[in-house]
Structures are given as structure tokens and as C-alpha cells.
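A quick word before the example. In earlier lectures we treated sequence and structure as two separate objects. From today on, think of them as two lines of the same record. Here is glucarate dehydratase written that way.
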Amino acid sequence: MKVQHIRVTPIAFKDAPLLNASGIHEPYALRSIIEIESDTGHIGLGESYGDAPVLSVLQAMAETLVGLDPFDLNGLRARVKATVARLPRAQAGAELAPGSHPSKQVANAYSAFEVAFLDLQARFLGMPLVNLLGGAVRQEVPFSAYLVFKYAQHIDSPYPPDRWGEALSAEQIVAQARRIIDENGFKSIKLKAGALEPEHEVACIRALKQAFPDAPLRIDPNGNWSLETAVRMAGLLDGCLEYYEDPTPGLDGMAELHRRTGLPLATNMVVTDFDEFRRSVAQNSVQIVLSDHHYWGGLRDTQALARLCDTFGVGISMHSNSHLGISLMAMTHVAASVTNLGYACDTHYPWQEADEEVIVGGKLPIVDGNVRIDFSKPGLGVEIDPAQLAKLHAQFLAIDIRSRDDARQMRKYQPDWQTRKPRF
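And the structure line, produced from the sequence above:
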């Protein structure tokens, strides 16, 4: 079997006005959809970032992979490295997650194609992708409710307001939680923080604790609190948290925070590769790593990370950013194979509009907080809807956003807004 055709299609889909440590989401999120067709007629699917620097690598990879055996993942990695090396060096910009940083170009490009190659392999063999990862240790994967402070609509009103409405007060955040839990059955709750005053965000967690006393709670300020603020907020959060996610920047800051509070700290920001993992273990900086296959180097490298976490007594779960169903199923298949997955995974998926999915059948169901693998279907178990893909690609062509910049968007609301971390 050989790779015969590769299609990389940039898309844009509506994104709600969600507040975060870097500003506010722009009206559209960017993604890339990858289709790899073999000479046997099988097609493997992948999904990745759609920002210009990432897209340039993915598109440059297309010709280099023609003729490669889809089982040759070492060959894939070598060609990704060679392609990145010959392209102009990406410039650091308004990175909002480690996956969009120039240092992650090889890892996220390899991951994008590795998922598609594994999907293609599994379709060729007639088995679910998780079987290539050693088999499923769970039939379904738990995910967490992902709560976000938000405005009712975007300032420039490019389309009608979303169905979620404003969420700034504690009462509105509790209402948001009730709705997202009623619709998806989530058993645990995460609050994206670092956007408003820390005391207010802590008050929202305490309101959630009162409203949902049995739900494990997490708060994620995205490194936007100083060490002293994070220590002070830890005291106010006493007895509320399952874990404390990225409250303060850096391995040193997180290590000192853990030493002073004893709280379990989780991260998707300070441990983003294997070298950072090594340094974190030496310092006891974090107790839970939130993997993301998009920038950790794919599904197999996620499994390698899980084994290291098991060896060193570190917990593991998964991080999420704005994504569609192909990424959700890739997360689900690898999470189903990880024996030591100890926490419900993050997902932004409920925030995506129902009519803006690219897979046949529309949005995937989340039932009782879980995503289930259909073991009767090969590969990831999803197919591209050509009409939907064309619609979202046309939407990409119609807008001027080419790299996500939440600070730029925030300046439409606050002209003097500047990125500053930690802000509080």
C-alpha cells in the first residue's frame, strides 16, 4: 500500500466570544482537515491547527508523502523533519497554546499526519484505530464540562449571538454549567480562568461547589496569576479542587506553589515535551500532565508519555482547544488505550455549533459525559461530509483571520489591552 493523494483543506468555523488569559476568542476558529488516499482506495483522516505557520508546513508536506507506505511512521517523521528544516523559520507570535509555538512545528505536523496514517492503516486492516494502539482498556472515555467566561456576542457581530448567552457572574457560570451538564451528562467541571479578577473567579468555583457538591472541580488560570496570587487563591479554594491547573507560570513557579500549598498541580503549559517532563520530575513541578496529541507528537508519543507518567507516579489526562469531531475521536481512541488515565479529559467540543461539523452525521454524541468508540467501524469511525467540508473551507476563504490572535480581538473591546503574564 502506498500513499497516492493528499488533501489539506483549511477551514473556519464559528467560535464563541470566550474570555481567557490572552484576551478573547476571535469570531472564527481555524483548523486543517487532512485526507490521505492510498492506492487501495482507502482514505485516512486527520485534523490539526489551521493557523498560517502550521498550514504552510502541512501543505508543504503533501508532495513529500506521495509514494510512502502508510505503515512507515519512521519515514513520515523523517520527511516532516526535512520539510520543516527547508522552510523559512516561523516567527514567534501570539501563541495561545504550546501547539502553535514555532518550536512545535515538527511535533504538530507529524501528529497531524500520524493520526491520518494510523486511520488509514486501521481502515485497510478493517479494525478500529485503538487496536493499533494495543487495544481498548475502556469502551468509553470520560470528558469534563468546560466552562468559560464569555460575552453574549462578538463586538463586530459577524453573525447572530450564540445560544449560550453571557457568562460573567457566578450565577451565570452556574447556569452555564447546568446547561452543559444537562446536555452532555458531564460528571466533572473545569473553569477556564485567568480572565477576570482572581477573587471573582474563585467565588465562581465556590458557587459551583455549592451547586454541584459531588462534581470534581478544576480551575485553569493559564499561568496568569503570580506565585503570590496563586498561593493566596489556593487558600480561598481549600477543599474545592480536584486539581489546580496552570495557575502560575514556569516549572520553578509551579514547583514552589506545590511546595507551599501541597495541592496537586496539572499542566498543559509547562510540560509540553519530554525534556520538560524530565525537568518537571526532578523539581516535582506538576503532579498531573494534560497531554495533547496535536503537539506532543501524535498518538503513539501520547502513549509513551502515559508510560512515563506511570513510571514516575504522575497523573495523566488530556488538554483541549477548539476542535471538531476528527480530533475528538483521535483523543478518544488514544485515551481508550491509556491504562492510567486518571481524570476526565478536557474538550471544547460542546462549544462548536451543531451545523459546523465536517463529519457525516453531524456532531458526535457525548452521553453521560462519555464518548464511546463504535467498534464496528474501522479507523477513527468517522467519515468526511464533502458538502460540510466545502462550506467551512468557503468560510475560511471569506474571512481575513489567518493566525489566531486573542489579544488583537480583545483590543476591539479595550483599545489599550496588552498581553501581560502574569496579569494578576
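Notice the following. The mean pLDDT is 96. We will return to this example when we discuss secondary structure assignment.
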